């Protein structure tokens, strides 16, 4: 035991305590940076994963409409609206009162390139204005259409999953 009074040991203890606190603060800062880096890394991983998922999903998108429109040389044809995701297609035919619209030969070509059964075109050609909305489905493609002499035949194609 030391013969020094206890009071004289306080400065040494408080220096040690400050040294311990100081190193504790450094450790805490280091842990905070480390934790922050881990959190940042986790969010980067999630962001890359989600981005990769969407890229992969878009690569798997059905390209049959794009291919049909390309083969029919109808990508920019009048009366055809093609969705950005490539999964739907709208054909707006000209009628007696429609000044603008698609050419029926484009619709015939598209249906042929989509390998629709011949009954689909037969049904379209025999649709009257009294029949309302008609529809057909084949090989994961759905089409619905209406006909009116004033507006012509309008058809909506969609990839169904």
What does the model show?
It is a single chain. This protein is α+β, with helices and mostly antiparallel strands and 161 residues long. The chain contains 4 helices and 5 strands; from the N terminus they run ααββααβββ. The protein has helices at 10-59, 64-71, 104-113, 118-125; strands spanning 80-82, 88-92, 134-138, 141-148, 152-159. A hairpin with a 3-residue loop joins β4 and β5.
**Portion in helices:** 40-55%
The class by helix and strand makeup works out as alpha+beta
Q: Oligomerization state of this entry? A: single chain
The strand line-up of the biggest sheet is 1-2-5-4-3
- Total of helices: 4
Any idea what the shape is?
elongated
User: How many strands, what sense, and barrel or not for the largest sheet?
Assistant: 5 strands, antiparallel
Mean pLDDT: 80
> Total number of β-strand segments?
5
Task: Please tell me the total number of domains.
Answer: 2
Order of helices and strands: HHEEHHEEE
List low-confidence stretches: 54-59
What amount of the residues lies in strands? 15-25%
What is the rounded Rg?
35 Å
The CA-CA distance between the termini, in Å, is 86 Å
């Amino acid at each position: 035991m030391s013969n020094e009074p206890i009071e004289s040991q306080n400065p040494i203890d408080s220096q040690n305590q400050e040294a311990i606190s100081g190193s504790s603060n450094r450790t805490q800062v280091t842990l905070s940076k480390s934790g922050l880096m881990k959190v940042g890394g986790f969010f980067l991983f999630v962001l890359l994963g989600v981005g990769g998922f969407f890229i992969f999903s878009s690569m798997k998108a059905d390209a049959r409409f794009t291919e049909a429109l390309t083969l029919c040389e109808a990508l920019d044809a009048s009366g055809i609206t093609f969705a950005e995701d490539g999964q739907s297609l709208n054909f707006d035919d000209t009628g007696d009162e429609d000044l603008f619209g698609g050419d029926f030969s484009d619709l015939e070509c598209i249906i042929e390139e989509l390998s629709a059964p011949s009954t689909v075109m037969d049904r379209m050609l025999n649709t009257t204005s009294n029949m309302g909305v008609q529809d057909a489905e084949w090989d994961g493609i759905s089409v619905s259409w209406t006909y009116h002499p004033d507006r012509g035949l309008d058809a909506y194609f969609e990839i169904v999953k």
